[in-house]
Specification:
Number of strands: 0
Number of helices: 3
Helix content: over 70%
Shape: elongated
Structural class: mainly alpha
Largest sheet: none
Radius of gyration: 15 Å
C-alpha cells in the first residue's frame, strides 16, 4: 500500500481531530462524575466503557484510513490531538 505524503498529512490531521474528539468524549465522563456522585465500581465501569469505545473508534479509523496498518504518525496525531484538547478546552 503506497500512501503519498499529502495523504499521510491528511491522515495525520484527521487523527489529531480524532484525538480531540476522544478528549471531548472523556470530558463528558468527567462532567458526569461531577454531576452524579459515583462509587469506585461505577467509576471503574465508566473508565472501561471509555477505553473500549476509544479502542473501537481508533480501530475503525485505522481500518478506514490506513487499511488496518498501524502507523506511528496516526498514534502520534491521536495523542497530540487528545493532549492539546485536554490541556486547553478540558481545563
Amino acid at each position: 500500500m503506497n500512501i503519498t505524503l499529502a495523504e499521510q498529512t491528511q491522515i495525520f490531521l484527521y487523527s489529531c481531530l480524532l484525538g480531540a474528539a476522544l478528549s471531548v468524549f472523556f470530558d463528558c465522563f468527567r462532567i458526569l462524575r461531577i454531576a452524579v456522585r459515583s462509587g469506585t465500581v461505577l467509576i471503574a465501569a465508566e473508565d472501561i466503557l471509555y477505553f473500549l469505545a476509544s479502542a473501537l473508534v481508533t480501530y475503525r479509523f485505522l481500518l478506514e484510513f490506513t487499511m488496518g496498518q498501524l502507523r506511528f504518525y496516526v498514534i502520534l496525531g491521536i495523542v497530540l490531538g487528545w493532549l492539546l484538547c485536554h490541556c486547553t478546552l478540558g481545563v
